[in-house]
Amino acid sequence: MKFHTPSFVLGFGSAIVVMGTARRLKPAVVEIGALGLHLARLGRAVVERQREHAEDLWAEVEERARHMREAPRRRRAGATTGNGKHVPSTANPRAAAA
Question: Any residues with CB less than 8 A from the CB of 89 and at least 6 apart, and which?
Answer without folding.
Answer: 79
